[in-house]
Design a protein that fits this description.
The protein has 152 residues and is an alpha/beta fold. Helix content is 36%, strand content 27%. The strands form two sheets. Strands 1, 2, 5, 6, 7 and 8 form a six-stranded mixed sheet that branches. A two-stranded parallel sheet has the order 3-4. α2 links the parallel β5 and β6. α1 packs parallel to α2. The chain is globular and about 55 Å long. The termini are far apart.
Length: 152
């Protein structure tokens, strides 16, 4: 069973989206949230007026989080994100797609600079650091667009 699922809402014009798993570029484990599979599932709800995104995830792959964020932002529906526990790391990017973000009592959004595991010689590690710097700038642009705050 995947830890993301679309479920009908009590209102026929809405759908609930549960994001409760590790966010991955491709579904490797049964609980992974794969961006490609997400796009396919989202397209089945193209006519809803509102998507209620319910999040309790520690995050995962930043690029998958960016992709899911972009898909939600491009959808015609109003997107309301409910942080029910934790929207950490890549899951915080998904939360930023909300037209509104509702935080449950005691819930948290956790953001941080991107990190990676790297193996290789010095030139490989320098290249990884350069990619992380570019990724950080991309993530900051998403947080800036949602919050209106400066990059600092």
């Amino acid at each position: 069973m995947k830890f993301w699922a679309f479920q009908p809402s009590t209102n026929a014009d809405e759908v609930d989206l549960l994001v409760y798993g590790y966010i991955a570029e491709a579904a490797v484990w049964s609980e992974d949230v794969g961006a490609k599979e997400f796009r396919e599932a989202l397209s089945a709800h193209k006519d809803v007026k509102r998507i209620n995104v319910r999040i309790n995830s520690g995050g995962g792959d930043a690029f998958a989080g960016i992709a899911i964020h972009s898909m939600l932002k491009a959808h015609q529906a109003e997107v309301v994100c409910f942080v029910e526990g934790l929207a950490g790391s890549a899951a915080s990017l998904i939360a930023m797609a909300g037209d509104r973000i509702v935080m449950a009592t005691g819930s948290m959004i956790m953001i941080h600079n991107p990190s990676a595991l790297a193996v290789g010689e010095a030139s490989d590690l320098r290249q990884t650091a350069d990619v992380l710097d570019k990724l950080r700038d991309s993530l900051v642009s998403i947080y800036r667009a949602r919050t209106g705050k400066t990059a600092e």
